[in-house]
Amino acid sequence: MAYKDGNQRREEDKIISLLFEHRPLEPLTGPLRFKATCYLPIPKSKSKKWQAAALAGVIRPDKKPDWDNLGKNLCDVMNRVFWEDDSQIVDGHVVKLYGAPARWEVEIEQLSPAGGLF
Question: What is the pLDDT of residue 68?
Answer without folding.
Answer: 94
